[in-house]
C-alpha cells in the first residue's frame, strides 16, 4: 500500500470509476475526481441517506443501484470496508446502455419486419391482406392502425377504410368518403401516391379522424400517415394513431412505419393483381363448367365431373342437357386436349349445340350439322382439334319408361343398368366430330323401364391409371362391376359411387378429365 | 309433470325421441324421400330448429345407417340410397335458413373422403348460426382448396376427416390453408379420440359435432394458426411417406391373396400403410393400434387374421432402418391392454 497520502489521492483521481467512501454513520468521508464529476451533490461531510441523488440515497440498504443522473446512466456497487465503513464504486454506463438499447430496438424491428414479411406473404386475397396489414402494427407501432384504400374496379371509386385497434375483437371496415379523407392532412397526398416522408401530426385538426377510430379512443396523441406504394401505383395509405399518453413516433419508428407500409402496399398490389386474374378465370370457368341439370318430369338426371389437375377445374370433358317438348336432349363429350385450350373448344361445341338444336333435334342429324359447323369455323383445319360426342334424345313413354335415341361420334358406348342388376352396352359407333367433312355418324335406340338407368361417360373413367400396386387402368370390367352392384340406386348416388371408386383407384395419381351423365326413368 | 292439454310443451323442453328416429329410419329403409322430408318439415313446424333436426335426427340416423352397412345388415346400395334420401332432407332443411349475417367459412372433406353427409350437416348448422358457408364437396383436392381460399379469403376452413388413415392428406390441407393465411378448424373422428391429433398437424381447434363447429367459430381465430405449421415430431415421416407404394407392393406380395380378392386386400393394405404413416406423422402409436384393431374385422372376412400379422411383419422387416417405426408396428401387432383387440 502506498504510504504517501498524496500518491493514494492521485491514484484515486486517476480512476475512470467514481469512488465514494462513507463512515459508520453513513457520512461521506472521501470522493475522488470522477465522483465530483458524476455526482457533484455528494461531497465529504454529506449524509449519504439524505443526499440529493435519490438512487444513492435510497440504496442505503442495498448493495447496488442503477439510475439516470444529469443525463448520464450510472451503475453503482457497494463494497464493505474495514471498521464498518463502506465504499461506493459508480460507473458511467451511458454509452454501453445506449448500445444495448439500440441493439434491442434493432432486434425488435427486425423481428417485426420478419413477422410482417411472412404474414403479408401468406394470402393472395385482398380483404385478407388488408386485415393482416392493420393487425400487424398494433400494438407494436401504434394503438390503432387504419388503412385507407380504394377498391379496384368495378367497385365505385370511393375510399374505404379498415381499422384494427387494441381492444377491437377483429378488424372493422367502413366507407370513408372523400370529405373525411380530405380533412385529414396528408392523407390525399398519400393516397395519390406522392412519396412524401411520413410526418407525425400532433393532435392536429384530426377531429374527422374520430369517425374511423374506436368510440373510446379519444383524440389521438400523434398520428403518422404513410403512403403504401406499389409497382402498380399507390395501394392505399396507412394511418397509425397513438393514444395521448403514449410518446410520439421517433425517427426510427417513422422509418419502420414507412418500411412496413411499403411491404403492405406490395402485398396488397399482388393480391389485387391476383384478384383481377382470378375474376377473369372465374368468369371463364363459370361459362365452361358443366351446368346445373334442370329437373325434367318422368326422369331423374345426375352429372359428375372432375377436371384433370389444374386449379381452374375446367377441361375438355363436358355435358349438357336441353329440355324439349317430350323430354330432353343430352350431350356428353370429350374434346381432345386438356386445360384451358380444350375448355375453350368445349365452350364452342356447347354453344353450337345450343343454337343448332333449335333447327334440328334428331340426334344423328344434329351431329352432322355440328360437324359442318365446327369445320366451317375459321382456322378449324389449323387447330385440328376434334371431339368425341354422344347426343341422346330422351322421350317419355306413357308407361313411365324412357325411349332414348343415342347418336355417337367416336365416343365410348353408353351403358344401361337394368333395375335387376344387368349391365348392357348400347353400341353406337360413329366417327369423331370436327375432324373430317365426310365423317359418318351412327345411332341406336334403347328403352329404359322405370328403375333402369343409362350412363354416358368419358374415357377418363375407364382409362384412369392407378391401383394399389402396379399402375393399371380402371377399365370396363371394374366400371361394369361398380354399376351392377349399384343397380337401383338414384343417378346421383350411382355417379358419386363411380367417382369415388375411380378416385380411390387413382389413389392420388393425376388423371384425365372425367365426366359422367346418368339418366333414370321414373 | 304433465303439461295442461291446451298448452303443448315447447320444443326447447323436448328432444327428438326414439320413435321419431325409428320412423325416420323407416323412410330411409324404404328410400322414401317424400316421407323423410315431410317428417323433417313436420318437426320444424312443431318448433324444433333446423339444428335440432339435423343433429338429433339426421346425423343420429346416419350413424345407424353406417352401422347397418358395417355389420352387413344393409347392402352398399341400400346405404347409398338411404344417404341420398338424407341428403335431400338436408337440402330441404337448408332451404329454410335465412340470409347470412356473419363472416364466411369454407367446409371441405379431406381428399379421398366421399361420405359427405356429415359435412353437409355441419354446413347447414353453421349456416343456421348466421355464417355464410361454402361447401366445397366431398374429397376436395388440396390445390382446389388453396385456389378457392386465395380467391375468396374466408375467415376459416372447416375440415372434415372421418378415417385416421387420411390424416396425412388432412395435414397437407391444413398446411396449405395455413400457408394461404386461413386457420383450420378440424372435425370428425379421423383426428383421433377427442381430436388429439388436430393440434399436432396445426389445426386451430377440433370439434366432434356440428354444434361444436358453431361453438368453435364463436371464439376469435388467432393469426397464430396461420403460416408454417409445427414440423412432424418424428423425422422418419418423410422417409416412410416416400416408400408408401413400395411398402404396399411388398406386403401384397408377402400375403399373395387369391386373384379374386387381390384388389380388396391391396386396398386394405394401402389403408394400413397410410395409417402407419399417419401414426408417424402425429407421433402416436395409438393411431395405428386402433386402426389395426378396426381393420382386423374388415380383413378377417377377406383373408383371415394371419394375413394382418403377415402384413405387419413384412412392414417391420422392410423398415428396419427406422427403429421407432418398427417399434410402432410391433406395438400395433402385439396390441395393448387398452387396444380394441389383438392382431396376429
UniProtKB/TrEMBL annotation, chain A:
Alphabetized, the UniProt keywords read: Hydrolase
Recorded hits in SMART domains, A to Z, give:
PP2C_SIG
Q: Name one GO molecular function term.
A: phosphatase activity
Q: Where does the record place the PPM-type phosphatase domain?
A: 300-521
Q: Which PANTHER family match?
A: STAGE II SPORULATION PROTEIN E (PTHR43156:SF2), STAGE II SPORULATION PROTEIN E-RELATED (PTHR43156)
Q: What is this protein called?
A: Stage II sporulation protein E (SpoIIE)
> What is the source species?
Micromonospora marina
Lineage of origin: Bacteria, Bacillati, Actinomycetota, Actinomycetes, Micromonosporales
Automatic annotation (TrEMBL), chain B:
Q: Which SUPFAM superfamilies match?
A: Cobalamin (vitamin B12)-binding domain
What's the superkingdom here?
Bacteria
Q: Which Gene Ontology BP annotations are present?
A: homocysteine metabolic process; tetrahydrofolate metabolic process
Q: The B12-binding domain covers which part of the protein?
A: 102-231
Q: What keywords were assigned to this record?
A: Cobalt, Metal-binding
Q: List the GO cellular component terms.
A: cytosol
GO: which molecular function terms? cobalamin binding; metal ion binding; methionine synthase activity
Which PANTHER family does the UniProt record give? Answer: METHIONINE SYNTHASE
Q: What is this protein called?
A: Methanogenic corrinoid protein MtbC1
Q: Which organism is it from?
A: Micromonospora marina
Phylogenetic lineage? Bacteria, Bacillati, Actinomycetota, Actinomycetes, Micromonosporales
Amino acid at each position: 500500500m502506498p504510504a504517501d497520502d498524496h500518491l493514494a489521492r492521485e491514484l484515486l483521481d486517476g480512476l475512470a470509476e467514481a469512488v465514494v467512501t462513507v463512515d459508520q454513520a453513513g457520512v461521506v468521508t472521501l470522493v475522488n475526481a470522477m465522483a465530483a464529476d458524476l455526482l457533484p451533490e455528494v461531497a465529504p461531510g454529506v449524509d449519504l441517506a439524505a443526499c440529493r441523488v435519490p438512487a444513492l440515497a435510497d440504496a442505503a440498504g442495498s448493495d447496488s443501484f442503477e439510475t439516470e443522473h444529469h443525463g448520464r446512466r450510472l451503475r453503482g456497487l457497494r463494497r464493505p470496508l474495514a471498521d464498518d465503513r463502506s465504499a461506493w464504486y459508480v460507473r458511467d454506463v451511458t454509452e454501453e446502455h445506449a448500445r444495448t438499447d439500440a441493439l434491442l430496438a434493432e432486434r425488435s424491428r427486425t423481428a417485426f419486419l420478419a413477422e410482417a414479411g411472412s404474414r403479408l406473404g401468406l394470402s393472395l386475397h385482398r380483404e385478407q391482406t388488408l386485415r393482416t396489414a392493420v393487425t400487424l402494427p398494433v400494438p407494436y407501432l401504434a394503438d390503432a392502425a387504419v388503412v385507407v384504400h380504394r377498391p379496384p374496379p368495378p367497385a365505385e371509386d370511393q375510399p374505404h377504410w379498415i381499422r384494427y385497434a387494441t381492444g377491437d375483437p377483429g378488424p372493422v371496415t367502413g366507407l370513408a368518403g372523400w370529405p373525411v379523407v380530405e380533412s385529414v392532412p396528408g392523407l390525399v397526398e398519400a393516397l395519390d401516391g406522392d412519396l412524401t416522408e411520413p410526418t407525425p401530426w400532433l393532435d392536429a385538426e384530426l377531429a374527422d379522424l374520430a369517425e374511423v377510430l374506436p368510440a373510446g379512443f379519444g383524440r389521438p396523441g400523434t398520428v403518422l400517415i404513410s403512403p403504401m406504394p406499389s409497382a402498380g401505383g399507390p395501394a392505399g395509405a396507412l394511418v397509425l394513431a397513438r393514444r395521448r399518453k403514449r410518446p410520439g413516433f421517433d425517427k426510427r419508428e417513422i422509418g419502420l412505419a414507412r418500411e412496413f407500409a411499403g411491404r403492405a402496399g406490395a402485398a396488397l398490389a399482388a393480391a389485387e393483381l391476383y384478384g383481377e386474374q382470378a375474376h377473369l378465370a372465374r368468369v371463364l370457368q363459370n361459362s365452361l363448367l358443366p351446368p346445373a341439370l334442370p329437373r325434367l318430369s318422368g326422369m331423374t338426371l345426375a352429372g359428375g365431373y372432375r377436371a384433370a389437375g389444374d386449379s381452374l377445374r375446367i377441361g375438355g370433358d363436358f355435358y349438357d342437357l336441353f329440355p324439349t317438348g317430350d323430354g330432353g336432349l343430352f350431350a356428353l363429350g370429350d374434346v381432345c386436349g386438356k386445360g384451358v385450350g380444350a375448355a375453350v373448344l368445349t365452350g364452342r361445341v356447347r354453344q353450337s349445340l345450343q343454337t343448332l338444336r333449335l333447327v334440328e333435334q334428331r340426334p344423328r342429324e344434329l351431329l352432322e350439322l355440328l360437324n359442318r359447323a365446327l369445320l366451317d369455323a375459321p382456322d378449324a383445319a389449323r387447330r385440328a382439334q376434334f371431339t368425341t360426342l354422344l347426343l341422346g334424345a330422351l322421350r317419355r313413354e306413357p308407361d313411365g319408361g324412357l325411349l332414348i335415341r343415342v347418336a355417337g361420334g367416336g365416343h365410348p358406348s353408353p351403358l344401361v343398368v337394368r333395375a335387376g342388376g344387368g349391365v348392357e352396352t348400347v353400341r353406337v359407333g360413329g366417327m369423331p366430330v370436327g375432324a373430317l367433312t365426310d365423317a359418318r355418324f351412327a345411332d341406336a335406340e334403347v328403352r329404359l323401364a322405370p328403375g333402369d338407368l343409362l350412363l354416358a361417360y368419358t374415357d377418363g373413367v375407364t382409362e384412369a391409371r392407378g391401383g394399389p400396386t402396379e399402375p393399371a387402368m380402371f377399365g370396363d370390367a371394374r366400371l361394369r362391376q361398380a354399376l351392377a352392384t349399384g343397380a337401383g340406386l338414384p343417378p346421383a348416388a350411382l355417379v358419386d359411387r363411380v367417382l369415388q371408386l375411380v378416385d380411390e383407384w387413382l389413389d392420388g395419381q393425376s388423371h384425365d378429365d372425367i365426366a359422367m351423365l346418368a339418366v333414370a326413368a321414373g | 309433470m304433465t303439461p295442461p292439454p291446451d298448452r303443448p310443451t315447447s320444443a326447447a323442453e323436448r328432444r327428438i325421441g326414439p320413435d321419431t328416429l325409428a320412423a325416420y329410419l323407416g323412410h330411409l329403409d324404404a328410400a322414401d324421400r317424400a316421407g323423410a322430408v315431410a317428417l323433417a318439415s313436420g318437426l320444424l313446424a312443431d318448433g324444433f330448429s333446423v339444428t335440432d333436426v339435423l343433429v338429433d335426427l339426421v346425423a343420429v340416423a346416419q350413424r345407424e345407417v353406417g352401422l347397418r352397412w358395417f355389420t352387413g345388415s344393409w347392402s352398399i346400395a341400400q346405404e347409398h340410397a338411404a344417404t341420398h334420401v338424407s341428403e335431400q332432407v338436408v337440402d330441404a332443411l337448408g332451404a329454410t335458413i335465412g340470409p347470412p349475417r356473419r363472416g364466411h367459412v369454407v367446409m371441405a372433406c379431406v381428399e379421398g373422403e366421399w361420405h359427405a353427409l356429415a359435412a353437409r350437416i355441419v354446413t347447414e348448422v353453421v349456416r343456421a348460426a348466421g355464417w355464410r358457408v361454402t361447401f366445397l364437396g366431398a374429397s376436395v383436392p388440396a390445390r382446389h382448396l388453396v385456389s378457392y381460399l386465395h380467391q375468396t379469403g374466408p375467415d376459416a376452413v372447416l375440415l372434415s376427416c372421418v378415417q385416421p388413415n387420411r390424416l396425412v392428406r388432412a395435414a397437407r390441407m391444413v398446411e396449405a390453408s395455413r400457408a394461404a393465411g386461413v386457420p383450420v378448424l378440424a372435425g370428425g373422428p379421423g383426428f383421433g379420440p377427442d381430436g388429439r391429433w388436430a393440434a399436432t398437424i396445426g389445426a386451430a381447434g377440433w370439434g366432434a359435432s356440428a354444434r361444436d363447429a358453431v361453438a368453435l367459430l364463436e371464439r376469435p381465430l388467432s393469426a397464430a394458426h396461420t403460416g408454417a405449421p409445427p414440423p412432424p415430431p418424428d423425422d422418419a415421416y418423410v422417409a416412410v411417406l416416400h416408400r408408401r407404394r413400395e411398402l404396399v407392393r411388398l406386403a401384397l406380395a408377402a400375403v399373395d391373396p387369391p386373384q379374386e380378392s387381390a384388389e380388396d386386400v391391396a386396398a386394405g393394405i394401402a389403408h394400413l400403410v397410410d395409417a402407419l404413416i399417419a401414426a408417424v406423422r402425429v407421433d402416436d402409436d395409438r393411431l395405428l393400434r386402433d386402426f389395426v384393431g378396426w381393420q382386423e374385422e374388415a380383413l378377417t372376412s377377406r383373408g383371415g387374421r394371419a394375413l394382418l400379422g403377415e402384413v405387419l411383419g413384412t412392414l417391420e422387416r422392410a423398415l428396419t432402418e427406422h427403429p421407432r417405426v418398427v417399434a410402432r408396428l410391433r406395438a400395433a401387432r402385439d396390441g395393448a391392454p387398452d387396444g380394441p383387440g389383438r392382431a396376429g
